[in-house]
Amino acid sequence: MTAVLEVRDVRAGYGKARVLDGVDLTVGATERVILLGANGSGKSTMAKTLMGLTTIYGGTIDWDGRSITTAPAWRRARLGLGYVPQVSNVFRGLTVAENLLIGGQRVPHHTLAERLDMRYRLTDASHPKKMAILVSKEDHCLVDLLWRHRRGELDAEIPLVASNHPDHKADVEGFGIPYHHVPVPKGGKPQSEARLLELLRDVDLVVLARYMQILSGDFLAALGVPVINIHHSFLPAFAGANPYQRAFERGVKIIGATAHYVTEELDAGPIIEQDVERVSHREQPETMVRLGRDIERTVLARAVKWHLEDRVLVHGNRTVVF
């Protein structure tokens, strides 16, 4: 019988703690092998060692005739090795058999997706997403994103910034990014949205960095890419203008911000990130505005970063962030 897996004199463990000492194992192409032993005998460590998740001090591991002793985990997975931990938080809505199918990299992706009624996509992390930013008068979120991008904290290309006001042209162009003024005159929203669609034709993500125009459902459908918005967390109790003044008058004890995906229903899309700051009767409206802007900056930056890293899954009107 042809051996698919050959382990010879493997010694492995975690850091200075050696768990496996001189292990030999051969698995044929049609064999099923079960490791039995008491707790702490090294069964899980053996599985992790096969996947490249421990430190190997000696010995060799061959898979399908080639050495994978020093191969990283992702390369072993591409060759067909799968590892499904025995814990309750791995796809807990699936059965044990279904979890094992997901670990079976030899199963074609489309077959696995059909069997489990899954939708999936693969992205090349070496190609940064193209992210456009829309902004109105307030610039605190805009400048923060541009600064983080310059510092290398946001792995994206920013081909343009567009605004319904001309105010931030010099600041944006100072970062080496084109600035487009797209005014929205009374009764001219369809024309403005048409112009924005032209500008946003090749982007992968649009960020509303305090863009104070409501985007129509037709615009969102034609755009066809995710849109992330940031707003203060006073909605709906303090919707509209001057929310911090109204929050001050109401005597709130917490202020905050919410970053969410944009849908046709205003401020009702899946929430990506939120944060709050405690306040008291001592804070004046001006102080609350300053605190609120700080929260808006950090919450939006986190949401954008997580999206760019493909760490956000949308399920219905909720998100799962890894």
Helix-and-strand structural type: alpha/beta
Write the element-wise H/E pattern from the N-terminal end onward.
EEHEEHHHEHEEHEHEHEHEEHEE
| Residues in helices, as a percent range | 25-40%
Count of spatially separate domains: 2
Low-confidence spans: pLDDT under 50, at least 5 residues?
A: none
Query: What's the Cα radius of gyration?
Result: 26 Å
Strand content: 25-35%
Q: Please give the CATH architecture of the largest domain.
A: 3-Layer(aba) Sandwich
Q: What general form does the structure show?
A: elongated
Please characterize this protein's 3D structure.
With 322 residues, the chain is of the alpha/beta class. The protein has 2 domains: 3-116, Rossmann fold, CATH 3.40.50; 129-321, Rossmann fold (3-Layer(aba) Sandwich), CATH 3.40.50. The chain is built from 10 helices and 14 strands. The strands form 3 sheets. Strands 5, 6, 7, 8, 9, 10, 11 and 12 form an 8-stranded mixed sheet that branches. A 4-stranded antiparallel sheet has the order 2-1-3-4, with helices on one face. Strands 13-14 form a two-stranded antiparallel sheet. A hairpin with a 2-residue loop joins strand 13 (312-315) and strand 14. Helix 5 packs across helix 10 (285-308) and helix 9 (243-250) packs across helix 10 (285-308). The longest helix has 24 residues, at 285-308. The mean pLDDT is 87.
Helix/strand layout:
Layout: E1 3-14, E2 17-28, H1 43-50, E3 55-63, E4 66-67, H2 73-79, H3 96-103, H4 109-116, E5 129-135, H5 140-150, E6 156-157, E7 161-163, H6 169-174, E8 179-181, H7 189-199, E9 205-208, H8 217-223, E10 227-232, H9 243-250, E11 254-261, E12 271-278, H10 285-308, E13 312-315, E14 318-321
Parallel strand pairs: 5-6, 5-7, 5-9, 7-8, 9-10
Antiparallel strand pairs: 1-2, 1-3, 3-4, 10-11, 11-12, 13-14
Helix pairs in contact: 5-10, 9-10
